[in-house]
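look at this record:
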Amino acid sequence: MRFFWLVCQAMADDPLEALGGRTSMEVAKKPFMDKLVKEARLSTASWIPPSLDAAGDVAAYSMLGYDPREFYTGLAPLEAASHHALKEDTSVAFRCDFVTVSEGELIDPRAGGITPEEARVLTTELNKKIEKFHAKIVPVEGYKNLLFVEGANRTEELDDVETVSPERIRNEKIIKWAPKGKAGIFLRDLMEASKEVLENHEVNRVRIDLKENPASMIWLWAQGKRPKLPPFGQRMGVGGVLWSKSDAWRGLALSAGLQVMKEWDEREFSDFNIAYWGSEDAEFSKDHRAKIRRIEEFDAKVVGPVMKSLKKSKDPARILVTSDVLQSTAKGANTHAHAPVLWWGLGPGPVAAQTFSEKSCGQAATLYEPGHSVLQAFLKDQG
């Protein structure tokens, strides 16, 4: 028996006026999902506990069967795990993003699309400056980097500090959203120190001459310690592989002892396969057209190939298709609303449906709450 858990980032949504009161899922052309739904059971799931932020990385824990209230440690340590960069329990990882600030206002959370080469040059200079903070920046990709602070005496204070994504405070005064908590001053000093290096750096002078936004400071957020997860295989009784380009998902899978792949390869399918289709640009998007394209690509490039592979091999299988979060496109924000879930391979459910959507799943009586119970049900012939 093979299991396929297929996840499309922020696929679920509220109805939109621009779509005549329909959602992107209802409008998108998704022939493979709509074929599956005719032979499937439908339900909804609460991936994200109300006590935690409505974030895709929180939902990821639930989908892999881990209660995020017990195991979630933050986004940055997952991304660090993806790059094999966080090994010590006395380290706290932060997302360290290059941003553009003008007159105290954050005007560009991605510093004009700064290149990886430019970022590496700036990071080298910054690490000389922040060495006194026992901190080090590790370049990742352009504006997105990781910062590690060492020292057991600071670990808990740093882990508990209040931070916010720069994407959420575009065109707002940064003083309002500066890190808060016992270690807030320490982090604010570190961020201020970055300004001294970046303000007149040659990389930024060239960017300004080219009418590009400079990397005027670093913004620290999404901190956490190394995740400690019981091995997935021991908990679920089955090995598995993740297919994803998301650093957060890859880091979580590696921390759980799963294999990680970037590209589909039918020869690598294992007993349990989980695929996550998404992009960082989708996290706070208000573009319903982009969401429709993402759903259609997910259907064509993930769901379709799985169905074709199973038809060719005739292996017995089950497929689960879901959204990680319900994202309100109108607001450009994730919500704690229940996500639609399609279960194929267990026989049809009591509610007949012609299309896979929030509405058709909402009509089903089954709600999985907490969401981390879904995986066990999926593997144990329930649904």
Notes: The first strand starts at residue 2 and ends at 8. The mean pLDDT is 93. The CA atoms of residues 278 and 294 lie 7 Å apart.
